Amino acid sequence: MNLRKSCVMAAGTLFLASTGIIGVTAPAVASPTPGTQTVTASDPWPSKAFRKGVRDGRRDGWREAREECDSPAKAMLRMRTYGESEYLRGYEEGWKRGYAAGFEEFCY
């Protein structure tokens, strides 16, 4: 083996050994913080506004199903609410349930 090949092998071995040592002794990288955090309310029950929205939405959805007899998907396209509040979330939930119940009762 000539001098050139032995120097290349020694340099390669030295390089691999040093990167292996650095890789083993390097400090751990801190994990990133989670992107989203789940926030839960302290009250497990829905708010009064949500419950009132569910009642009103169920009543209105049931009435509309009785009068229109459209498929639930078409009816949902017509009923659009903008903004976000507890009442509106409850109203949409109640409306879906009320329309489904009315559709089942009157349109089948």
Number of helices: 4
**Shape descriptor:** rod-shaped
N-to-C span: 91 Å
Give the mean pLDDT: 71
| Structural class by sheet pairing and helices | mainly alpha
Radius of gyration (CA) equals 33 Å
Strand content: under 5%
The topology string of helices and strands comes to HHHH
Care to count the β-strands? 0
Helix % is 55-70%
Sheet having the most strands = none
Segments where pLDDT lies below 50 for 5+ residues? none
Task: Report on the architecture of this protein.
The chain is 67% helix and 0% strand. The chain has helices spanning 3-25, 48-68, 72-78, 86-106. The chain is rod-shaped. The mean pLDDT is 71. Residues 30-66 are annotated as: Disordered.
List the helices and strands and how they pair.
Elements (H helix, E strand, L loop, with lengths): L2 H23 L22 H21 L3 H7 L7 H21 L2
Helix pairs in contact: 2-4
Entry summary:
The chain has 4 helices and no strands. With 108 residues, the chain is mainly alpha-helical.
